[in-house]
Structure formats: C-alpha cells, structure tokens
Write a structure and sequence with these properties.
The chain is mainly beta. The protein is 3% helix and 48% strand.
Length: 160
C-alpha cells in the first residue's frame, strides 16, 4: 500500500472527538463538497489501529479520519504541529477495495501523543523527519515518507 500526494484543497468541515463515545467523527462543511469527491463505488477504510481513514473506492482518495479511538490522550507530550501543505492523498495498492471493508496500514507500534495546550493528537510510527505533511481535511494531516503513511496528526474539537 503506497500513498501519493497531489495538489488540491482539503475537504472542509469539522473533526470532532466525542469524549463520551471515545471516537472521532467528521462532518463535511457541505454535502456537495463531500459528494463531489465520492465516486459510484462507495467507500472503504484503511486502519491505523482503530482509527479509520475513509477512502473513496473509485479514486482511492483518502478523505478524512473517523472512528473509535479510546487512547486519544495516551501520552501527554508537548507537540509542535508539523509544517503542512493543503492537498490530497491517494492510495495505490494491489488490494481490491470493497464497500465497508477495512485494510490495516502496514506498520506496528503506532505511538499516540496528545498535547493539552495545542490540542493536537499525533499518531506516529517514528519521528519521520523527512516526511511531507499534507492537510487532507479540516483537522486532519497525514505524514507521508517515501510512499508510506508514517503519521496522522489530528486537531479535533473536543466535546463531552
């Protein structure tokens, strides 16, 4: 599974973390902005632990993050959000994507860090100093290094 970066605008909306549900959700700013990115084949997900990255099957574009994620405040640390560019990320893979089916992103030992002052959540394989960081949706930044997904940075609105 390889991830590629292309120019474009992030999907506008609101990323929320519901503390009582232990999960992320994404609400697009408008139905038209989301439907404009969806093909006719439905959506699937790639998994980083229990976090899901929604993928349009037809284009294989990664759209936004969502899902059950109880360890959001696992390790409290000071985080400096990476310098990122707006854009779009696409997946190339030998896997055939099917509606509602998830595939795990290669890599183990994803580390979770949370910064209470900036409210950023970082899910990282490593420090990825050479990664390129792309904001694919409001509150969602992906770190791509040599075609591999190495980090997910989330800046949600926290609700109780």
């Amino acid at each position: 599974m390889k991830f590629s970066i292309q120019g474009g605008s992030p999907l506008e909306g609101v990323l929320t973390y519901d503390e009582s549900e232990y999960g992320f959700s994404f609400s697009a700013q408008s139905g038209d902005s989301l439907s404009g990115r969806l093909g006719s084949e439905g959506v699937a997900s790639v998994l980083v632990g229990t976090l899901q990255l929604e993928v349009d099957i037809e284009s294989r574009e990664v759209l936004f993050a969502w899902g059950y994620f109880p360890n959001v405040r696992g390790v409290v640390a000071e985080l400096s959000a990476p310098q990122f560019i707006p854009g779009r990320v696409f997946i190339s893979s030998d896997h055939s994507f099917e509606p509602g089916v998830s595939f795990e992103v290669p890599g183990d030992r994803w580390r979770v860090s949370y910064d209470p002052s900036s409210r950023w959540v970082a899910i990282r394989l490593n420090d990825a100093t050479d990664a390129k960081f792309v904001q694919i949706a409001s509150g969602t930044v992906l770190g791509i290094d040599n075609g591999d997904l190495v980090s997910v940075w989330l800046s949600p609105v926290f609700v109780e």
